[in-house]
Structures are given as C-alpha cells and as structure tokens.
Amino acid sequence: MFLAVTVTILLSLSLTWVVRQLARRYGVLAHPRRDRWHEHPTALLGGIAIAGAFLLGLSFFLPAELAVRRLVAGGLLLFLVGLIDDLVQIKPYIKLAAQLVASSGLVFSGLVLTWTQMPLLDCAI
C-alpha cells in the first residue's frame, strides 16, 4: 500500500506541475476578485492532474471491483462538474446539486458507509 500511495502522490505532483504550466501558457487562469482569496492570477484545471494521477494509481494498484467502480463513477461526475466550473463558472447551487446527485447515486446503488448504528443516518451522511 505504501508503494501505491507514494507512486500516486509523485504522479499527482508531476502532473500538477505540467497542467499548471499549460494553464499558464494558454491563459486558463482565475483572476483576483473581491470574493476570492488569491491576490495573483491562479492556474485552473489542476483537477485534471489530480484525477489523472488518482485513476492511474487506482488502475495499477487496486482491483476493478464493483464498489470501486461506483466510487470512481461518482468521483468522475464531480471531476467533470469541477472541470466545467473551471471553464465557464457554474453557479454554486448547480455544483451542490451535482454533489447530491453523485452521493445519492452511490447510496442508491447500495454503497453505504456504516458509521453509526442508524442506517438512515448513515445514508444521510
């Protein structure tokens, strides 16, 4: 497991640097605004590097079980929403709706974490 985590982190760092350079070169930047915390233009599209590293690490180090596929499908939905948001800026309530759809899809497919003794609360979480 240590090897899997280490390789995926190194891959993520490397891909993040590459994507950052490409975003800067092609002007895909978030410019400072009053409602943002950054003071300098910030490269967007970093999620591509993180998702790519995660998927590559996953494909090499974990079996393609149904539960893993379900989690990846939900994660890919959220990745796509983030990517679209980087490119055209989605309203916050749309992003929240996508998060609810992704998490509901996981729960309705039968994937629930049993964190409490109350199944309804586990589904809500």
Radius of gyration: 17 Å
Average pLDDT rating: 85
Task: Please give the alpha-carbon distance between the first and last residues.
Answer: 27 Å
Strand residue content: under 5%
Biggest sheet layout: 2 strands, antiparallel
- Low-pLDDT parts are none
Query: Helix and strand succession?
Result: HEEHHHH
* Tally of strands: 2
Question: Which overall shape is indicated by the principal axes computed on the Cα atoms?
Answer: globular
Strand order of the largest sheet: 1-2
Into which percent range does the helicity of residues fall? 55-70%
Structural class: mainly alpha
**Can you count the helices?**
5
Task: Describe the protein's architecture and organization.
It is a single chain. This protein is mainly α and 125 residues long. It has a two-stranded antiparallel sheet. The chain starts with a helix and ends with a helix. The model has no long low-confidence stretch (mean pLDDT 85). The protein has 5 helices and 2 strands. It is globular and about 50 Å long. The longest helix is centred in the first third of the chain and has 24 residues, at 2-25.
Task: Give descriptors for this structure.
125 residues, mainly alpha
Topology:
Blueprint: H1 2-25, E1 29-30, E2 42-43, H2 46-61, H3 66-88, H4 92-108, H5 119-124
Antiparallel strand pairs: 1-2
